[in-house]
Amino acid sequence: MRQTRLIKAHAYGNDFLIAPEPLAPGNDEAAFARAVCHRHHGVGADGLMFVQRRGAAARMRLFNADGSRSEVSGNGVRCVAAWIALDEGVSPGAEIVVETDAGPKVSVLTAVADSRLTFRASMGEPTEIRQVELTADGEPVNAVVLRVGNPQCVVIGAVTEERLRRLGGALAVHSYFPEGTNVEFAEVEAPDRVRILIWERGVGPTSSSGTGTCAAAVAAIRYGGANRHLSVSAPGGTQQVEWTEAGLFLTGWAEVIADIDWPHAVRS
């Protein structure tokens, strides 16, 4: 049986599997993603990325842990960039371009500390930003909805595990979002500091999210009085977001942790 190579990487605990080669004919990509991402029966990850390398550039296609497709992941882009940077032996200042379904993302390597590589990544311009009132679990919710390459729903206010569990899943599949959405609960603690909890589409609660971090920053800047350069803290750690005339930039680290041979086929 043909083995499939998988690279495991994470950014602030938001973990991904990278498949550098396409599956053999007859394999179901969505079923494969569900199998390898399973926390008990598989390797375990929040998502699987099929990546085609072209030197220090790549094209990625992302599947969530439940087998659904996603346009882009900010943390996933940096995981791919970290794998390429290590493989190519590049130095700080190098640019790595990762093509996604939400367009190209350019990551600039800024620092290497042990196994963690820090990048400043261009995330594009946020779009379709607006405030809406939704009802979730019988409760009215004032939310900021937008796209950061993928759909986002940010609720500014109290950030508690209880609200995340009760409202996050309901909002993620709310009828207002035909594609589903990522959800962030965000508290503006200071003009330069925001704290978030995340419910990721197709995954559930996650320790971090790159696009969610960007979305929370945009909502906090536009409607919460935050600065245009700020820190966003999630359970996995803190990333930096800048919203400039050139768009959003996300700075944080990623780490490659394993090289795996997966022996099982998943047939359609």
Written account of the structure:
With 268 residues, the chain is of the alpha+beta class. Helix content is 19%, strand content 50%. The chain is built from four helices and 17 strands. It has helices spanning 29-37, 74-88, 161-172, 210-223; strands at 4-11, 14-19, 47-54, 57-64, 69-70, 95-100, 103-113, 116-124, 127-136, 139-147, 151-156, 182-190, 193-200, 204-206, 229-234, 237-244, 247-262. An eight-stranded mixed β-barrel has the order 1-2-3-4-6-7-8-17. A hairpin with a 2-residue loop joins strand 1 (4-11) and strand 2. The longest helix has 15 residues, at 74-88. The protein is globular, with a radius of gyration of 18 Å. The two termini are 16 Å apart. The model has no long low-confidence stretch (mean pLDDT 96).
Rough outline: globular
Mean pLDDT: 96
Termini, distance in Å? 16 Å
Q: Helix/strand/pairing class, anyone?
A: alpha+beta
Specify the oligomeric state. single chain
Helix content: 10-25%
Largest beta-sheet details: 8 strands, mixed, barrel
Secondary-structure element sequence? Answer: EEHEEEHEEEEEEHEEEHEEE
Question: Helical segment tally?
Answer: 4
Q: C-alpha Rg, in Å?
A: 18 Å
Please mark out the parts with pLDDT under 50 across 5 or more consecutive residues, or reply none.
Answer: none
Task: Quote the beta fraction.
Answer: over 45%
